[in-house]
Amino acid sequence: MENAIELRDLTMGYGNHTILRNLYLNIKVGEFVSIFGENGAGKTTLFKGILQLLPIMKGNIKIFNVDVTKSNEKTWLRSQIGYVPQRHNQGNFPITVFEATLLGRWGSSFSYFKKPSAEDKEVAKDILQLVDLSHLSHQDCRRLSGGQIQRLNIARALARHPRILLLDEPNTHLDIESQQKLDNILHSIRKEYHLSILMISHDQLHTRRVSDRVVHLRNGTFQKDLELVI
Amino acid sequence: MTLLEFFKVPIFQRALIGAIIAGGTISLLGIVIVVFNMTTLRFALMHFGLLGGAIGLSLGANPLTAAITAIAIGSLLFGPLSDKFKLDTGIIGGFFMTGSIAVAFLLFYKAGVPALDVFSLFTGSILTLTNSDIVFVAVLGLIILTTYFTFFREIQLIFYDAEQAEWLGVPAQKIRNGLLFLTGLAIGVAMKIVGALLIDALILLSAMAAMRIAKNFKQLLVITSLLGMLTTTGGLLLSMVMDLPTGATITLTGVTFLLISIMIPTK
Ligand SMILES: Nc1ncnc2c1ncn2[C@@H]1O[C@H](COP(=O)(O)OP(=O)(O)OP(=O)(O)O)[C@@H](O)[C@H]1O
Ligand SMILES: [Mg+2]
């Protein structure tokens, strides 16, 4: 089976300070893998590498068999991956839930003078339905709860119909109920979009509940002992 | 004089045109200051302008032109400097603020600039606008409107989530630095129109009020611009009719609008 993400001998860091050492990981198409690890383990750094926001030191990263560390196909890479960053900004100016979702499609069909098309709007509407925010379409983002913001962030990341979703600690600061709702939504979007998901989480129980596989990042490498297949 | 007679005086005509253009466009940059939380930076730019003014006064040049030039240079530096050294714009701002004010006072002392001249830097007036000032304000206003129009969605993306904007391929840093530069120019113009001490009235107050009322970005732009225009022209007319100092009257008009916006219940 084809791999959605493939890390080979990946070494990364900042300046000459190495954070991740000789990582190997395969994520199959359609698989949901969670990365578990302490603060500062290098989880976000790994995402930055996959997204090519940070240069790598050694090894390579393949996305659907394309070595993104060698090819210069940034536009293609952007169309493949939806990214929900760790720091969740809810904006401090008036913008509606619908508009914020629509902005997630920037660059795919509209930009600068080109206005969003009817199709763009249709897609945004469908996605809001999927993350259960339809009823809040016209709500000002400044007045959303933590769980609602999280769902909106996922909606924005999905707006360009990526094939891979990277989630950086989507469940922090959520109460049990919002977490469960998020889990259900992840479960259904995964089916709907045939997504391969890589999620970072601090919560071991949570990762085991929602994902197919959990990998443990520690001291710059994946720990074999904690890897388990459900 | 009645209001009708005022309209026939060229000084007043220029002031009115300046008020309409500056109020309607410069106010839009207040949004940048509020969203990026740049209150320190804006304060620092003002002090930087003061340093420019001090240099101008000591050299016998036009202090306001020197001030605006200094602010323009300062605002060109802020964005790239904070990117390069990974510092928060607040720290960079604090650095420039204290440094420039100290150097300004040294210059005042060494050049023996009279206190009254120094004071004039703080108290610009819309009634002293020259024709070339009006042209400058109009060009700046046009650039501001064009920028918001061209990058309408890109600016929203950067305001909302700079990290995702970068990931989607928006030239986030360039647009942000462009906005910072325009904001610097606007602060310079505001120094001329209302004086350094009352800059906020022109730039910040209407954006702050509109933030509370608007429901989306388009409304935010329209309401900010309208409130800005109402503040400057309303303040100007009021000061004429009631024979009050213009800068202060414009500011009080702005404060009144902000108060009203706070009292409107948000649903
Ligand atoms: N821009 C940077 N420059 C230098 N070092 C950095 C930078 N960003 C992160 N680091 C360092 O790299 C290490 C890994 O950081 P990273 O953000 O990847 O951790 P993380 O596993 O995501 O942690 P958390 O669970 O707290 O989000 C940390 O020691 C951190 O201090
Ligand atoms: Mg992290």
UniProtKB/TrEMBL annotation, chain B:
Identify the main location.
membrane
Q: How does it sit in the membrane?
A: Multi-pass membrane protein
Matching entries from InterPro entries are given as: ABC_BtuC-like, ABC_TroCD
**What Pfam families does the annotation carry?**
ABC-3
Subcellular location as annotated:
Cell membrane; Membrane
Membrane-spanning intervals of the chain = 15-36, 48-78, 90-109, 121-151, 179-208, 220-241, 247-264
Keywords attached to this entry: Membrane, Transmembrane, Transmembrane helix, Transport
Q: Which GO terms describe its cellular component?
A: ATP-binding cassette (ABC) transporter complex
GO BP terms: namely: transmembrane transport
The name of this protein is Metal ABC transporter permease
- Which superkingdom does the taxonomy of this entry point to? Bacteria
Q: Tell me its family.
A: Belongs to the ABC-3 integral membrane protein family.
Keyword hit for Mitochondrion? no
The upper taxonomy is: Bacteria, Bacillati, Bacillota, Clostridia, Peptostreptococcales
What species was this sequence derived from? Alkaliphilus serpentinus
